[in-house]
Amino acid sequence: MVNQKVKEKLDTYRKAISRLEDILNEEISNDYIYDAVIRRFEFTYEVAWKLMKLTLEYKGIVEARSPRDVFREAFAVGIIKNGDVWFKMLTDRNLTSHTYDQETAIAIYHRIKDDYFETLNLLIEQIERSL
């Protein structure tokens, strides 16, 4: 039986992914799209690492406290396959919360759209398979 907290967090994550996908499908008609994508990415990323943490705890692995630890452990036990991408997301997530300039925002937008979204979306399947 799946832990209720994991199930609830997975449901929240599905909604976050859907909202991120919605904004990624919008045409870039103004600079607000970049901001909206980055904000939804930040939220989705936060839910993702906390979902991984809950899944690890459900499996009896409680040492992971920070996103970096969670990604390392999740990769080690096979919850995620592409640890490098998760560590790149961590770097970009830190950039989005501590600095803001248009050039950086546009570069991160493209990484979210071209690289990160697929990995974020794949997490649903990877979590379900690991339970």
UniProtKB/TrEMBL annotation:
Domain of life: Bacteria
InterPro entries, A to Z: HepT
Keywords in alphabetical order: Coiled coil
Coiled-coil intervals: 3-30
Cross-referenced Pfam families: NTase_sub_bind
Gene3D superfamilies: Nucleotidyltransferases domain 2 (1.20.120.330)
Record-given protein name: Nucleotidyltransferase substrate binding protein
Native organism: Heliobacterium chlorum
Lineage of the species this protein comes from: Bacteria, Bacillati, Bacillota, Clostridia, Eubacteriales
